[in-house]
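ok here's Cytochrome c oxidase subunit:
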Amino acid sequence: MPDDECAPPKKGITADDIKTAPMDYRFPATNQAKHCYYSYNEFHKCAAEKGEDAKDCQKYARYYRSLCPGEWVEKWNEERANGTFPGRY
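and the structure:
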Protein backbone atom coordinates (compact mmCIF):
# COMPACT_ATOMS: atom_id res chain seq x y z
CA MET A 1 0.00 0.00 0.00
CA PRO A 2 1.58 3.36 -1.03
CA ASP A 3 2.22 5.92 1.70
CA ASP A 4 -0.03 8.56 0.15
CA GLU A 5 -3.10 6.35 0.66
CA CYS A 6 -2.60 6.60 4.42
CA ALA A 7 -2.10 10.37 4.41
CA PRO A 8 -5.03 12.47 5.60
CA PRO A 9 -6.97 14.15 2.79
CA LYS A 10 -5.95 17.71 1.95
CA LYS A 11 -8.36 20.47 2.83
CA GLY A 12 -9.38 23.20 0.37
CA ILE A 13 -7.01 25.82 -0.93
CA THR A 14 -6.64 28.86 1.31
CA ALA A 15 -5.52 32.39 0.47
CA ASP A 16 -2.09 31.51 1.87
CA ASP A 17 -1.73 28.77 -0.75
CA ILE A 18 -2.05 31.20 -3.67
CA LYS A 19 1.38 31.94 -5.11
CA THR A 20 0.43 34.67 -7.59
CA ALA A 21 -0.97 38.16 -7.24
CA PRO A 22 -4.57 38.32 -6.05
CA MET A 23 -7.29 39.92 -8.17
CA ASP A 24 -6.97 43.69 -8.24
CA TYR A 25 -10.24 45.35 -9.21
CA ARG A 26 -8.38 48.35 -10.64
CA PHE A 27 -7.19 45.97 -13.38
CA PRO A 28 -10.29 43.90 -14.21
CA ALA A 29 -9.39 42.85 -17.75
CA THR A 30 -7.70 39.60 -18.63
CA ASN A 31 -4.64 41.52 -19.87
CA GLN A 32 -2.57 42.04 -16.72
CA ALA A 33 0.11 44.32 -18.24
CA LYS A 34 -0.97 47.34 -16.18
CA HIS A 35 -1.11 45.25 -13.01
CA CYS A 36 2.39 43.96 -13.79
CA TYR A 37 3.78 47.47 -14.38
CA TYR A 38 2.07 48.85 -11.27
CA SER A 39 3.44 46.04 -9.08
CA TYR A 40 6.96 46.49 -10.48
CA ASN A 41 6.85 50.22 -9.73
CA GLU A 42 5.34 49.74 -6.28
CA PHE A 43 8.08 47.26 -5.38
CA HIS A 44 10.82 49.72 -6.32
CA LYS A 45 9.06 52.59 -4.54
CA CYS A 46 8.72 50.46 -1.40
CA ALA A 47 12.32 49.21 -1.67
CA ALA A 48 13.58 52.80 -1.89
CA GLU A 49 11.63 53.74 1.25
CA LYS A 50 11.94 50.60 3.40
CA GLY A 51 14.60 48.38 1.81
CA GLU A 52 14.14 45.40 -0.49
CA ASP A 53 13.85 42.91 2.36
CA ALA A 54 10.86 44.60 4.00
CA LYS A 55 7.84 42.31 4.23
CA ASP A 56 5.60 44.90 2.54
CA CYS A 57 8.02 45.13 -0.39
CA GLN A 58 8.32 41.39 -0.81
CA LYS A 59 4.58 41.23 -1.47
CA TYR A 60 4.99 43.49 -4.52
CA ALA A 61 8.08 41.58 -5.63
CA ARG A 62 6.10 38.33 -5.58
CA TYR A 63 3.27 39.97 -7.54
CA TYR A 64 5.40 41.43 -10.32
CA ARG A 65 7.48 38.26 -10.62
CA SER A 66 4.35 36.20 -11.17
CA LEU A 67 2.61 38.69 -13.48
CA CYS A 68 5.41 40.12 -15.63
CA PRO A 69 7.22 38.34 -18.45
CA GLY A 70 10.91 37.90 -17.61
CA GLU A 71 11.96 39.83 -20.71
CA TRP A 72 10.07 42.90 -19.49
CA VAL A 73 11.67 42.74 -16.05
CA GLU A 74 15.16 42.36 -17.54
CA LYS A 75 14.54 45.33 -19.85
CA TRP A 76 13.17 47.48 -17.03
CA ASN A 77 16.08 46.56 -14.75
CA GLU A 78 18.54 47.57 -17.48
CA GLU A 79 16.65 50.83 -18.04
CA ARG A 80 16.68 51.57 -14.31
CA ALA A 81 20.44 50.93 -14.21
CA ASN A 82 20.93 53.27 -17.19
CA GLY A 83 18.60 55.95 -15.82
CA THR A 84 16.22 55.65 -18.78
CA PHE A 85 13.31 53.82 -17.11
CA PRO A 86 10.08 55.73 -17.80
CA GLY A 87 8.52 54.75 -14.45
CA ARG A 88 8.49 57.04 -11.46
CA TYR A 89 10.63 54.82 -9.24
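+1. Residues 20 and 54 are 18 Å apart (CA to CA).
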